[in-house]
Amino acid sequence: MKKILVTGGTGYIGSHTVVELQNSGYEVVIVDNLSNSRADVVDNIAEVSGVKPAFEEVDCVDKEAMRKVFEKHGNIEAIIHFAASKAVGESVQKPLLYYRNNIVSLINLLELMPEFGVKGIVFSSSCTVYGEPDELPVTENAPIKPATSPYGNTKQINEEIIRDAVKANPVFSAILLRYFNPIGAHPSALLGELPNGVPQNLVPYITQTAIGLREQLSVFGNDYNTPDGSCIRDYINVVDLAKAHVIAIDRILEKKQDEQVEVFNIGTGRGLSVLELVTMFEKATGVKLNYKIVGRREGDIEKVWANPERANKVLGWKADTPVEDTLLSAWKWQLKLRERGIQ
Ligand code: UFG
Question: pLDDT (tens digit, 9 = 90+) per residue, 111-160?
Fold first, then answer.
């Protein structure tokens, strides 16, 4: 069985990806420092997939600890690197923490890969690299815009670090996946997003409002240049997103890449406004949402959605879960959390 190291494997996207890897016959070793996730996610993964992944509570910033993981587990064929700090606002307050966590972690992995014969890395990038795009839908060839937060900057810098590292030492290859807005939860309601404190992202805020943990959703702005005035995003189901990672790993290990560093947009190709999403949530769940329109949130992009054709054609991957089903999965996850007494 081929062994894959998943950093950040107990996190939101990481946990869903571990399950999909296991379902496709890979053996998984998770590394996570549990800074933004719970140890019991490992048990939930086992419940969903029927296989308990190996788990090492290690911080990727600690190179010696990471070296021990590679030594202990042996024959790691490829890495999916999720582990990162991801709160945009916090990154403005604590830029050095973000640069250290996100950049040092990656450098450690890239240095250890040739030492242990690892063949490739899949990196979690983001549509944030496009900033406010000039043309929509946005393709992978769109210009990279100056980052508006240290968090966004770490994604851009890390893409460049990977390109330079592969160019200098082409013993391994890389796939950069630029995610749009991941939402939803596993249909089993055993895995999902567990925001730390008050959610910053739209869907967790919606589900927490719907269940009564928050009084009201604030819709940030209805005076944008969009049909209903609220911002537009490309909301991608987290299980669909997880599957893209498995295909990327297959592609690396089967040596199918056209270039040693490939980049793919991972989105649906469909833009939805905040207000449209709120209405869809109400329809899908039958729960009425208390919301009000407030002023714009600083730093928000007006509209962005993917042209996912390259991923569709080259990877043979397509986001196919209807948004309504995705929103329902997020709601079921929120109900399950209450049942478990977590939130
Ligand atoms: N929004 C609200 N109310 C809320 C939360 C969000 O109206 O309480 C709106 C935002 O203004 C935005 C949309 O919902 O228009 C989506 O906001 P999110 O915070 O869920 O997502 P963003 O698109 O702002 O950010 C996401 C990731 C970031 C990443 C960024 C670009 O969370 O990590 O995409 O890739 F940097």
Answer: 999 999 999 999 999 999 999 999 999 999 999 999 999 999 999 999 99
Q: Counting atoms of ligand 1 from 1, which one is nearest the CA of 274?
A: 14
Query: pLDDT, tens digit, for every residue of 229-287?
Result: 999 999 999 999 999 999 999 999 999 999 999 999 999 999 999 999 999 999 999 99
Measured in Å, residue 235 CA sits from the centre of ligand 1 at: 10
What residue numbers bound the domain in which 130 lies?
Answer: 3-183+237-266
Q: Which atom of ligand 1 is nearest to the CA of 231?
A: 15
From 297, 301, 303, give the residue whose CB has the most ligand 1 atoms within 8 Å, as the site to mutate: 297
Q: Look at the pTM and tell me if it is higher than 0.85.
A: yes
Q: Which of 179, 181, 182, 183 is nearest to 334 (CA)?
A: 183
Please give the distance, rounded to the nearest whole angstrom, from the Cα atom of residue 201 to the centre of ligand 1: 5
Q: Are residues 65 and 206 in the same domain?
A: no
Phi, psi of 166 (to 5 degrees): -70, -40
Structure tokens of 226? 């969009």
Same domain, 222 and 273: yes
Q: What is residue 325's three-state secondary structure?
A: helix
